[in-house]
Design goal:
single chain, 0% strand
């Protein structure tokens, strides 16, 4: 196993020959850049996935036990909802400076800042396990929400920097997988760790244990990131990434990049449709406890398990969709199909929630989660295709900004609708916007710019290789090859 790692991470004679072939010179003395894949890429993406998990867990850990925390901190449900919505609100003004920092300083600096904030937020919350310290737990959640700004836009950027052209969608799915797994753990563990007991001191002890666990995990991951996380591979993995590295520092303008993205009509349609879909998911996740308890009183633990079902099914959907995209490159068709099934899943969930059978809720929630949560990496990767060669962090940031805005609007609106007219009306409200999002997705023009760049470079390398072979053999290349070579 050690020899295999050496073969891929430390170039030997065979690998040097491979790089030479992939960087074949043309008749003018120029060459296509060499590319190479490192085994380290899997460690990097898994480490990112781990700290994304830790942060996503904190986002949902309050909402799924909202009725318990309302009694402990003596606040209303809207105040508890803000412990979730603060993640959405913080993201909106902070995403642009953080994206600029990602472009200027790179992946490692961004990862260190994300983990430093995540680590700090968890330890602040450890001190907030007293009924009169709601403000302190909100402060800790605010610090953790700042960490999220450094995390959400990273999967597509990390995938492009470290992975090959046939792996980027799968790698992006693994990055999103960590976030989804964190939400799943956030649905599952808090109802188990913090039972709905009457004694306030006992309740405070349970809450403190929950906070200590998340702080310990965040600390361990932070140490690993400091030791292990790397900026980028020495040799780029794809021709598209090699071209990005050749752009001089003065040749890139962040404001110009933002302007270019805002003028990209297919991308802006995706921004709106992505925001509608993910905003619905945020609202459902935040208000799930209230929806389940309304129809199934005393089922706090099962509310968490239903949330877990939504996210685990979505994780499977994300991985399957990522692998499918890498094999077929059918970005528009896959995104539209998944969006349509998200709408269908939401309709089925809406009209079966009040039937009185929990097993039905588990099944319908799983179907909903498979498509709605499985949509997340599709949006990221489709955005990169539509916006290449613009920064992946910038395009992902705009997608997530849209999701946070709609998440706040939907969470507040659906919460008020549920309070006044019940869960059925609240869920129909979301179905309407999913229908709008499906229609918007259908209007997106499929302009796969990154795929075109990789294919063009592959064709140039083939032509150059044929010319070099012909020159060595003293033969004259066919006229059509000469023509393509000049092109």
């Amino acid at each position: 196993m050690g020899e295999d790692a050496q073969d891929e991470d430390a170039p030997g004679p065979a690998e040097t020959i491979e790089c030479g072939l992939r960087g074949t010179a043309d008749g003018d003395g120029s060459s296509a850049p060499a590319t190479r894949l490192y085994k380290t890429r899997w460690l990097i993406v898994c480490l990112f996935s781990a700290y994304s998990l830790s942060n996503a867990y904190q986002w949902i850990q309050y909402g799924i036990i909202s009725n318990v925390l309302m009694r402990f901190y003596e606040v209303d449900g809207f105040a508890i909802d803000w412990l979730s919505m603060v993640f959405m609100l913080t993201y909106i003004p902070c995403i642009f400076p953080v994206t600029w920092l990602l472009d200027k300083k790179g992946l490692r600096v961004t990862a260190l800042l994300a983990n430093a904030l995540n680590f700090s937020g968890t330890w602040i919350k450890v001190a907030s396990a007293k009924s009169d310290l709601f403000w302190l737990t909100m402060l800790g959640q605010f610090v953790s929400s700042l960490a999220q700004v450094f995390i959400l836009g990273m999967p597509s950027r990390l995938a492009s920097v470290w992975f090959g052209a046939d792996e980027v969608s799968t790698a992006c799915s693994i990055g999103v997988f960590g976030n989804q797994l964190g939400i799943a753990v956030g649905f599952l563990l808090p109802p188990i760790l913090v039972p709905n007991v009457d004694d306030v001191e006992e309740l405070a002890s349970h809450i403190r244990v929950m906070f200590y666990i998340s702080a310990g995990v965040a600390t361990f991951i932070f140490i690993l990131v400091i030791i292990v996380f790397q900026e980028k591979p020495e040799i780029p993995p794809t021709q598209a990434q090699a071209q990005c590295r050749n752009i001089p520092p003065g040749g890139y303008s962040y404001t110009a990049s933002i302007g270019s993205l805002l003028r990209n009509k297919p991308f802006m349609l995706l921004v709106l449709s992505y925001g509608l879909n993910v905003g619905c998911f945020y609202s459902i996740s935040t208000l799930l406890n209230r929806m389940i308890i309304e129809h199934y009183p005393g089922e706090e633990v099962n509310a968490g398990r239903i949330g877990l079902t939504i996210v685990v099914a979505g994780m499977a959907g994300s991985l399957i969709c990522g692998i499918w995209l890498d094999r077929t490159k059918t970005y528009k068709q896959t995104t539209l199909a998944v969006y349509l099934f998200s709408l269908i899943g939401m309709l089925v969930y809406t009209f079966t929630l009040n039937l009185g059978h929990l097993w039905v809720v588990f099944v319908t929630a799983g179907v909903l989660g498979f498509f709605m949560t499985g949509y997340l990496p599709l949006g990221f990767e489709f955005a990169v295709e539509l916006t290449y060669p613009e920064s992946e962090g910038t395009s992902s940031g705009l997608l997530n900004c849209s999701a946070q805005i709609f998440g706040i609007i939907f969470t507040i609106s659906q919460g008020k609708i549920i309070d006044k007219w019940g869960t059925l009306a609240g869920n129909i409200f979301l179905c309407v916007f999913l229908l709008i999002g499906t229609a918007l997705t259908g209007f997106i023009k499929s302009d796969l710019r990154r795929q075109k760049a990789n294919l063009l470079n592959a064709e140039v390398r083939t032509v150059n290789s044929e010319k070099a072979t012909a020159d060595r053999e003293g033969a004259v290349p066919p006229p059509e090859v000469l023509k393509e070579g000049k092109f």
